[in-house]
Amino acid sequence: MDPVDVGERLKTIRKSHGLSQRELAKRVGVTNSTISMIEKNSVSPSVSSLKKVLSGIPMSLVEFFSMDLEQNNQQKCVYRANELLNLGVAPVEMLLVGKERRERAMAFLIETLPPGSDTGSEMLNHEGEEAGVVIEGKLTLTVGNDVSVLEKGDSYYFDSTLPHRFQNLFDESLRLISCTTPANF
Fold it and tell me: Which residue range is the domain that position 43 belongs to?
């Protein structure tokens, strides 16, 4: 997987929508220096922070990472490992299966969180449902006020409108398979 230059991509998309750094920052409630640091790759935003910034455009993570990919009219059903789109922000990897399927009803992901990583300090919450299974390592899952540690083979399923966060607070990499609805992750 070639890494995506998040800063350059955000700058290009922001400009294509006719937004200044100041206007985008105002829309999402952050400082314009935050937008500037992301665009210069001085900071690497968490998944939740990037989602927040993109909400001011508005644009989903899937659109952000796949906007310049060519649309294929043929419905593909097999996806090779090197064809998966990484929606994560380093060091978190979130590989999307079926990136070309614009009419998909779900976002099916293969996720890797290195030791000490998480989805960000801000709790996520959005319309839909999420489910997943831990295939390697341990996951600290916070949903609302409940905090659980899931190990290999353990799974989860919850309403995504509840505030939630995924963390790897352990010494080994965490891998999980997850699914989120709706697909506009």
Answer: 6-66
